[in-house]
Amino acid sequence: MIYTCTMNAAIDLYVELDTLQPEIVNRTIDEDYQPNGKGVNVSIMLKKHGIDNVAMGFVAGFTGNFIQQSLNDLNIKTDFVHVDGITRINVFMNADKEYKVVNQGPSITDEKQQLLLSKIKQINKGDTLIVSGSLPLNVSDTIFIEIAKICEEKEIDFVLDTSIASPEQILKHKPYLLKPNDEELAAFFNLEHELDENEIIHYGQELIKQGAKQVLVSRGEKGSIFLNEDTCFVLTSPQGSVLNTACSGDALLGTFIGLYKQGKSLEEALIHATATGASTAFSKGLSDLTDIPQLVKQVQITRRGLNE
């Protein structure tokens, strides 16, 4: 079984406007409300591929109830920890440019954090846990280390997709996969410039040397790069009209883990994942997968030698 964990879930409100102007009433021409949070997105994408999974994490108030009910309506099992407060609502506006307004979310008590960890301890050996997204108020990034340790001890495949200052303590517990974007990868090594392809491969290899079993780097319109101890694949992205980039990395990750765990070859899983990430960028929300057969034809995959 695949489990996802979203500690700072959200409802995402997508709105479209002709223009966005200050100090006047701006009327929208389209709107859409969707359950969100990076792990929630991964759960939905897995289900779109017909893969059962369980969504975990924290939810609060009427907005949290909306997220749980929305997932249940999609036949996705949930095992959330309910907390006080209101799960956040984020706003993504597409006008002359794309605007993103992201809120903080509720504060999580130590007691509720321990309850989540106890749920994770009940996951079975050989299962997969995907932890994605930002941390809510009052939760330290040391919780990722605790989760990594639990997964190592219980032989759970631990996948992490989040912005953290340094992954060193997590890497000691040999995570199954890290999925940074190119900016996050640079931040891991205290770099402030945009990484080129060779640099991404170099620093991806460093994460492997420090303990990660696999690394998948999302690069937006440039595609993705995958590394493990033996292999490096560079993939280009299909091109199209971008409507929303917020969920592309989640679609990439969910598709890759889901298809790879189902027995697809590494190359096939990566190609479909890259196409699905692009399809999501061309959509208001997560891809409905209808354009994937065409988009996979545009993805070019190249094996790169390591230590080049």
Automatic annotation (TrEMBL):
Query: InterPro entries from the entry?
Result: 1-PFruKinase, PfkB_dom, Ribokinase-like, Tagatose/fructose_Pkinase
Q: What is its EC number?
A: 2.7.1.144
Keyword Transferase carried by entry: yes
Q: Copy the pathway line from the protein's UniProt record.
A: Carbohydrate metabolism; D-tagatose 6-phosphate degradation; D-glyceraldehyde 3-phosphate and glycerone phosphate from D-tagatose 6-phosphate: step 1/2
Alphabetically list the UniProt keywords.
Answer: ATP-binding, Kinase, Lactose metabolism, Nucleotide-binding, Transferase
Q: Catalyses which reaction? A: D-tagatofuranose 6-phosphate + ATP = D-tagatofuranose 1,6-bisphosphate + ADP + H(+)
- Superkingdom is Bacteria
Keyword Kinase belongs to the record: yes
Gene3D superfamilies tied to this protein: 3.40.1190.20
Entries under Pfam families matching the protein: PfkB (PF00294)
Cite a single GO MF annotation. Answer: 1-phosphofructokinase activity
Q: Where in this chain does the record put each Carbohydrate kinase PfkB domain?
A: 11-288
**Which family is it part of?**
Belongs to the carbohydrate kinase pfkB family.
Q: Specify the protein name.
A: Tagatose-6-phosphate kinase
